[in-house]
Description:
Layout: E1 10-20, E2 25-30, H1 36-42, E3 49-54, E4 57-69, E5 72-77, H2 83-87, E6 93-97, E7 118-121, E8 126-135, E9 140-145, E10 151-155, E11 161-165, E12 170-173
Parallel strand pairs: 7-12
Antiparallel strand pairs: 1-2, 1-6, 2-5, 3-4, 3-6, 4-5, 7-8, 8-9, 9-10, 11-12
Amino acid sequence: MAGSGFDPETIVVGVIGRPHGVRGELKVRLFHAGSEFATRFRAQDAPSALILDRDGHREIRRVLRARQAADGLVIAFELVESREAAAALTGAALRVPRHALSALGPREFYVEDLPGCAVVDEGGKALGAVIGTFWNGAHDVMTVRDAAGAEILLPVVPDHIRHVDSAARRVTVRWEPSDA
């Protein structure tokens, strides 16, 4: 995933894609098309500035215009006036301040917050640490590496994810090893 790891102040909502046209506009792929962030764009309530994160370097870019497209968003940033200038931003993670989003409800968490968390089973036994997540077409999956270096793939679904404490960097899961 794009971005530079857990940040308690901001959250990644998408990634900058390819240039769109010749006037500096960019396609943006949102990680969750049904998110509050996406809804704000549909309601023409786009933020006036966004944080771009590429290779650990962050910069705030002023949004000139934004519109919804069939497969995400099209955004024009201040001082990005050509296709070449837009191409230089391709691949950057798009971050927003967490305080700009509504508070999470009970049992809600951001998948982006999982990497780096310690993982324990419901009995408190350490299983390892989350080294990454990916989308498998049906739901997110987290990859957990144990102390011996073995990897466990756990679906990020309520049946398996029992509790996420982002502040403590800990995930409690329902998991029983297979005998295979």
